[in-house]
């Protein structure tokens, strides 16, 4: 059941990425530090919570979801899940801003706004650039724009450096990137996770699809050179063994099946960390 919940949440993130939505840096200025000192923040989006911490504002978070990393050490911050929230608790916290996704029910958002609480929706994540744009938007709201710009600049330089080390004979390889096991879900175009593949100078075997669910047979027929499997809370290791049974697949023949930790978190740092791991596995590991 735990694995199912982890997969279900990751799949929701992927669908949001495809469809869009509604609706510590030393260079930060004294103005930024002072103006956000007493800002009270509620984050109903785990990835946004991570970005807020990244901006040095962990102590400003007064509410978060049970899925947020910060809640593991500070369970008193929990105000609900990414879908069901305790509106009364949030209202009593009197936050200056609430960050929400389209998973949060409309009636909850309406109640918060009725009580004079500012609600900001996260952007869609159809690419790494949109992750960066959303991060900058959040930072601007929290008066940390200068810090965000520097983080983004460093991240883009890192991507350029990673691309330069990819050997020519590794470019153009076909990749199947698996996100779920039951049913099998894959990375598709117009999602930031597809950038993991394209930034690695490879080709997504399902670049023609607009839905994430695929069959095992379709993967075999498209014969990927590389299979990357998101860990999915431990299910990834079993899926790796499952794919090894299909000897006709190039990835099996060449022993190019890898597992990575969950790659579905749309933050600047997580993207760079995952991209570096993926490029190393594609290009240099046997």
How would you concisely characterize the structure shown here?
The protein is an alpha/beta fold and 286 residues long. It has 13 helices and nine strands. It folds into two domains: 2-157, Rossmann fold, CATH 3.40.50.1980; 166-283, Nitrogenase molybdenum iron protein domain (Rossmann fold).
Number of strands: 9
Global outline: elongated
**Helix/strand class:** alpha/beta
Cα-to-Cα separation, first versus last residue: 33 Å
CATH level-two architecture of the largest domain: 3-Layer(aba) Sandwich
Average residue-wise pLDDT: 87
Q: Return the string of H and E elements.
A: HHEHEHHEHEHHEEHEHEHHEH
Task: Give the strand content.
Answer: 5-15%
Q: CATH homologous superfamily of the largest domain - what is it?
A: Nitrogenase molybdenum iron protein domain
What is the CATH third-level topology name of the largest domain?
Rossmann fold
Largest sheet: 5 strands, mixed
When the domains are counted, the total is: 2
CATH class of the largest domain: Alpha Beta
Number of helices: 13
Low-confidence stretches: 1-34
* Helix share, percent: 40-55%
The Cα radius of gyration reads 20 Å
